[in-house]
Design a protein that fits this description.
Elements (H helix, E strand, L loop, with lengths): L3 H12 L3 H13 L1 H13 L2 H8 L2 H7 L1 H24 L12 H16 L3 H9 L11 H29 L1 H5 L2 H23 L4
Helix pairs in contact: 1-9, 2-3, 2-7, 2-9, 2-11, 3-7, 3-9, 4-8, 6-11
């Protein structure tokens, strides 16, 4: 079921630095390893509604309805712009408190869930990508679809967690230079803004 081609393709897709990866990396860099894991979990959990939509065939409706697609697309673009604005205006210094409050963990995870939830391209991605790896002789294609999706989510979680943890390892070095901190904040803000424009200009 889980062919080497599927596993390799899923890994390549997860490694491509998209919205979720950038959010996880920036979170790990500015808030530490625990926060980066919250971001990775949230981004992965945000895939679940798109998976369910694909299994239930709602992606077909999403593809056919320009109004629904446009609404989700611009909501996602607006949220990315909000993240860009918040990142740009965050003037706080880096803190190294390993005992972050629980609400901080869940707040970061919630933002990550919303980030992927408002990206209609994910539903279409599942609907277009996964069927290529479903065997024709399988009795329940829906079951195999779900299993493939879960493996893809596990790969995504692992890649994002590594991204975030690697970013968190250089926090001490980055914190010594306020100029580097400011440059990184502006860079991540610009990346979120660019992703917002890219999403807004995306056609079905």
């Amino acid at each position: 079921m889980f062919s080497p081609e599927f596993l390799l393709t899923s890994l390549v897709v997860a490694l491509i630095p998209g919205t979720g990866a950038i959010y996880t990396i920036s979170t790990g860099l500015f808030h530490g390893p625990r926060a980066s894991l919250a971001a990775a979990l949230g981004c992965t959990a945000g895939i679940v509604p798109h998976l369910l939509a694909s299994v239930l065939g709602l992606s077909f409706i999403l593809h056919m309805s320009a109004t629904v697609f446009q609404g989700l697309k611009f909501a996602g673009a607006a949220y990315l712009l909000y993240l860009a604005w918040a990142t740009w205006n965050d003037k706080g210094a880096l803190k190294f408190d390993s005992a972050s409050p629980e609400q901080g963990f869940w707040r970061i995870a919630g933002k990550a869930v919303l980030l992927n939830l408002l990206n209609p391209k994910l539903t279409l991605f599942f609907f277009a990508f996964l069927p290529h790896f479903i065997a024709a002789d399988v009795a329940s294609s829906a079951t195999q679809f779900v299993l493939l999706s879960l493996v893809f989510m596990a790969i995504t979680l692992a890649v994002f967690a590594v991204y975030g943890l690697l970013a968190s390892t250089i926090r001490q070095q980055v914190a010594r230079s306020p100029r580097i901190v400011g440059w990184l904040r502006r860079s991540f803000a610009a990346a979120f803004a660019a992703l917002s424009v890219q999403l807004a200009l995306t056609d079905r």
